[in-house]
Structures are given as structure tokens and as C-alpha cells.
């Protein structure tokens, strides 16, 4: 194969460690990146949903259901699209498929599982599902950008060999290295490409989110289109093992489906005009606006005292 050994003076080094110990626990940077992304997305979504008129931190009630289901969906989607890695004849660890801390989650599985969880959470809280999705979109994309640094720490999901000055160094012995590649070969840093693309997307979504025409789920549709369009490109140059369907990686097909779904949502939601009347479904109001009923027809203490003085004068 063509050699892409260090023909340039610069490169991006990969971290030498992917975890550290804290007492009896092993802390994986991959998990920390995901947790940090979830926290940032939660704060952003709360801010955006509150500005629309929702009760502060109602988002917590939704993500307590959505996040666990998103993680389950992300892991199962990855396992089902990489069956040979977990259930093949050469697999020695029968429980490897549940070890999410070692890497291996799929964003499209997270979207499916998270959507189910968010729908359930929105039903409980009375929040419109479309209002929540639009509020979530920018934070979701930023969380994905942050999560990609976990792939960098794990030295996984990199692209084809390259001699570009921003080529990524990968440690010898990495299971995804091409057979016959020179030890100092550099690879496309697809994690970095996606970080940049997603960050730009956050700015675009925040700008579009100021427009009334981007409500009713349309902003989330733009998120799907933006993210999936970039993912089609990054997936096409990745060299990690993947199931191939009709000549394309399964995640390429997933990204194509993401673009299609986003376009369908934009088309279907054309029937809605203007802004959503409220982030709540009809008949539901924020708890903060609920007040105890007061009988204003009854006299107040001041009025009773004044009446007593008038009686005394008489």
C-alpha cells in the first residue's frame, strides 16, 4: 500500500492514556466527554426552553428519561451494526457488548432511544415535543462535538492514511490500523473534522433559532440535516470495521436516512405558521404560574377594621 509516513513536519498526537484511576474506580475520558456534553446540553436547553415560557428546569424531568434511553439505544445500535465484533467466533469476552465504557455507541441509536424518552418526558410534563426538540437542537450538536474528543482519547474512528499536516498519530498495535501500514503513518482526524463541523452547526442553529419560522420542530429538522450531511462525508473516509450494505457503511445509510427525515419534517411542518402559542400543550401551564385561589369578594382585614371604626362612630 502507499506509504503515508511522516512526510510533513507537523501532526496531531493521540493521548497516551484513555483513563485514570481514582481509588478503586477507573475513570474513562470517553465517559467524561459524554457526561460533560450532556451537562452543557441540559443547561443550554433549559435556557432556551425557559425563554419560551417553560418552568425553569422542567427539562430535568424530561432528560431523566431521555438520557438513559438514549444511551441504551446508542449502544444497541452500535452492537447491531457491528455484530461480528461482539458475537463472532473469535470473540473471547461474551459480555463485551455491554461494556459501553470501552467505547462503541452510535448517535443514531441515541436519537431513536432519546426521542422515545423525550416523548415520554414531554407527556409527563406537558411540554410540546416539538418545542423541546427545537430547544434541544443546538445543545445536542454541541454535546456531540464534545463527545468526539472521547474518540480521540480512545484512538478510534479515525480515517484513511494521509500526508496532510494535521494527520493524526495512532499508536502501533491499534486494532483498526490497516495491514501493512508503516508505524509512523498518519490518518485523517475524523473526530476533529466532526468537532469543527458540529461547532459551526451550533452557530447556525442559534442564528436560525431566532426566527419564528424555525419553530414547530423545524430547527431540529435542520439539526438532523446538518449533522447527517457531515456524517456522510466523515463515515466515507473512516477505516474502522463496519457492516457494508450495497457498498456503503451502515452509518452512511443512517446518515442518509437522517437527511431524508429532516427534509420530511421540514415539508410536513409547513402547515404551521408563526410561533408556537406556548411550549406547553393546550390545557397545561407552568407550575410557577399556578396561584392559590383567593376569594376577592370577602372583606380583607383592613376593610373589616375600617367597618368596625365606622360602627363605633355611629
UniProtKB/TrEMBL annotation:
A 1,2-diacyl-sn-glycero-3-phospho-(1'-sn-glycerol) binds at residue 148. Its main location: membrane. GO terms for cellular component: plasma membrane. The keyword Glycosyltransferase applies. The chain crosses the membrane at residues 27-45, 57-80, 100-122, 129-147, 191-209, 216-234, 246-268. Pathway: Protein modification; lipoprotein biosynthesis (diacylglyceryl transfer). It is a multi-pass membrane protein. It is an enzyme of class 2 (transferase). Keywords: Cell membrane, Glycosyltransferase, Lipoprotein, Membrane, Transferase, Transmembrane, Transmembrane helix. It comes from the Bacteria. One of its GO terms (biological process) is lipoprotein biosynthetic process. Its EC number is 2.5.1.145. InterPro entries: Lgt. One of its GO terms (molecular function) is phosphatidylglycerol-prolipoprotein diacylglyceryl transferase activity. The keyword rRNA-binding does not apply. It is found in: Cell membrane. Signal peptide: none annotated. Catalyzes the transfer of the diacylglyceryl group from phosphatidylglycerol to the sulfhydryl group of the N-terminal cysteine of a prolipoprotein, the first step in the formation of mature lipoproteins. Belongs to the Lgt family. This is Phosphatidylglycerol--prolipoprotein diacylglyceryl transferase.
